[in-house]
């Protein structure tokens, strides 16, 4: 550019001095402006090197891996491990754009500065959130047409659950849950909309529920829950919905980053059914002997001594405190290492969880070690390869006990009587008899005395990925996956060695009549799964039109052989040695055959301006479970959405503009449901365990016909209809959604009731696709996120209501003699009825006196009410025949002691301020029933009784006198025996509680040290926290028990209360 100098200006003025005019003035001004502008442009065009720090606005945490880009160019850099960046900008007036997943993009003018510190705020809307929708496809939540919910790594990181499925509880609308016991390593039951166990997909590979539960959820990047027809792309196994897990990967152009997480937790028993103390137990024994006219086993003098509790031999023992009273640790440690260059990225982690049992002497509990790695590399501009490995080792070790080892131990708090003690003469070296059935004496529980059960499971999945860019927007992808799982179980049960102390000789004598020697077991099982997948992905935009498509083929094979050996040792302490044939009494080789499946799938997603959205999915699936001609099925699905808030009239409206996003959605899909066994279509015979025959003095193993082949059985079909709405308003601070859904199962397996077979044939009618069922419900969520100054806060909640309804039943009218008979046949047999609950007598109160019983017009016990006592229940005579029997039963419950509730909900709230943060997660449910009459049956079985039941039962005013009158309690007279079965143990509504509960599942308080303090020691993030799990509950559960348990005696292993202290560090 040519510039005007001051000398040239002076010459021009001299030449025009005599005829100076207005034009000359304009010329001078113009020249001056041009001169100034040229000089400025020359200065502004100079490039600048800008550096700075990218941090979280509220916590000051460095955002490692954030991207800083020069607006309008392709120039971009990634923030390094220290949170720093350096970038060349072409002009002093350039604008930088900083972005990070989960944070709002921020534009920062350079304005000639060479140092810029950028502070990002977490997003207040999830419209830009990327959702994994299956088979490697992703889409923004704003343009999502299906009913898909997501949970991010940030949300999971605040959970202290021992399992990944436990971390999911209460966070997703449409997910029902129940943690029915707290055994070390146990996981909650998770169902999508009460459909059943969902399909699990981890990094594109179908896995089982255990593989998901035992992942380290700190290695999970996101979880997507597919709840409607969008799951149809997964075909035959997707009828119960799909949970899609994506694991963490490294970030490109990021320096190596090391992460460390650790916590130490203390577990304590919570909300458990306490057994009665010795005084209550003795009173109950005396009352039982009084009522039943039994021979007295306790004199008045002995009774008084027990009530005083001061003399040796008459002091009660607290079995609850002895068995459950100790605290047990729960320890977690995890390291991860991640980073990347321009063409590679990597993520490696290893974690370990230890969960000790809270029961005394029960063993080492559960240990799990997780390993995960993801490595991806561009080997050329068009070719990308990747390898992922997910591995784990699970170890369970506990005392070897009869039956279910934990179940046996759980019963002992009631089977051990409070009048007896665990050790003979209180000497721990000599376990004593403390239960009516000696083998339940808890003093002998332990590795050395009762034996040991152990299980080791090793599982590894190796995934290989290849991605080829064929054309712009068109990719070919191949996936190969190999999973191997090996499980070994060892059990050595010892017979109980119990002792009796002889005070005279001061000797410890072995008790007589103890159970015989136990046995040893060993089980080996292997599982191999191979999955191969090839697909073409296409993604492109044509002006305002956006298109995604995928088409692929997948094959999967599995084989799971196992070997079982049983040995009966002659005495305790004999080791189980496989090379000693004489010790093995049973050897079972469960040969497994290879199962193969194949499918073809496609998915197309289209949107116009992000406003009109449509999606189609389809899958052609094959299964080996059916005869030729019935093995393949096609399962389509589709969804549409309309973001009306993107219309011009909406944006221009002052009223509607407060609603930032409003989307209507609808979807319909057909999924397959595999019914029957793999070889049910073949005729054949069953061998083994079918009885024996003696022929010529020799034992011959017999066989039995397997039944008629099911040649007419094929896929069941599940049709899912969903209508939903998503709303974001008030400047994206408030968001929510609502769904209505209906799922119809057709072609359910059943036999033809109008085809009769004589009993002598020994088998039943073959199954065909005859019946149907329906699940119908609603779900919703609402969330608020805002900030006041430097205080950021949030709260939100979700709920799910879902119930089963009995659909079509093949020739239902021909099965029952009347409508009443059909009703009494159960909810699963009556079309149009809710499929839950059990038949119960309807309690209408309690008898208050002998006179009321004598004058009662209804024969309730079928003996003229001779066995009824004051305090016993009264039942409604529904059919008016003057008798109480099963014809007077109705359904007044929900699912009883089983399944997930019909209504689940969760809500959370929290906030952060200058490095401090707090979060509380609540979960709850209603629409489930607990039956508690097992409380009474403990005492019936020569065991102790629940303290709650004893405190709320009917008692004699004088337990030594039958004629003293009664103090009527909530429950009948506390006695043993079944002479009052009709009025105490028959299923009835007074033993049932329709539950409603709310739990504070997680409470966490943390503090993040400011970066300007940490950078001096090379640490980018350091957070400490304290947390509590299963902290408190509000419930109408009788006795304050945990409402999630399913045992009607309340003796399940309780969900422990856990207090933890932990640290999260990044280098």
TrEMBL record:
<keyword id="KW-0472">Membrane</keyword>
<dbReference type="GO" id="GO:0044718">
    <property type="term" value="P:siderophore transmembrane transport"/>
</dbReference>
<feature type="transmembrane region" description="Helical">
    <location>
        <begin position="20"/>
        <end position="39"/>
    </location>
</feature>
<keyword id="KW-0732">Signal</keyword>
<dbReference type="InterPro" id="IPR023997">
    <property type="entry name" value="TonB-dep_OMP_SusC/RagA_CS"/>
</dbReference>
<dbReference type="Pfam" id="PF07715">
    <property type="entry name" value="Plug"/>
</dbReference>
<keyword id="KW-1134">Transmembrane beta strand</keyword>
<dbReference type="GO" id="GO:0015344">
    <property type="term" value="F:siderophore uptake transmembrane transporter activity"/>
</dbReference>
<dbReference type="InterPro" id="IPR037066">
    <property type="entry name" value="Plug_dom_sf"/>
</dbReference>
<keyword id="KW-0998">Cell outer membrane</keyword>
<feature type="domain" description="TonB-dependent receptor plug">
    <location>
        <begin position="141"/>
        <end position="242"/>
    </location>
</feature>
<keyword id="KW-0812">Transmembrane</keyword>
<keyword id="KW-1133">Transmembrane helix</keyword>
<dbReference type="InterPro" id="IPR018247">
    <property type="entry name" value="EF_Hand_1_Ca_BS"/>
</dbReference>
<comment type="similarity">
    <text>Belongs to the TonB-dependent receptor family.</text>
</comment>
<dbReference type="InterPro" id="IPR023996">
    <property type="entry name" value="TonB-dep_OMP_SusC/RagA"/>
</dbReference>
<dbReference type="GO" id="GO:0009279">
    <property type="term" value="C:cell outer membrane"/>
</dbReference>
<keyword id="KW-0813">Transport</keyword>
<dbReference type="Pfam" id="PF13715">
    <property type="entry name" value="CarbopepD_reg_2"/>
</dbReference>
<dbReference type="InterPro" id="IPR008969">
    <property type="entry name" value="CarboxyPept-like_regulatory"/>
</dbReference>
<dbReference type="InterPro" id="IPR039426">
    <property type="entry name" value="TonB-dep_rcpt-like"/>
</dbReference>
<protein>
    <submittedName>
        <fullName>TonB-linked SusC/RagA family outer membrane protein</fullName>
    </submittedName>
</protein>
<dbReference type="InterPro" id="IPR012910">
    <property type="entry name" value="Plug_dom"/>
</dbReference>
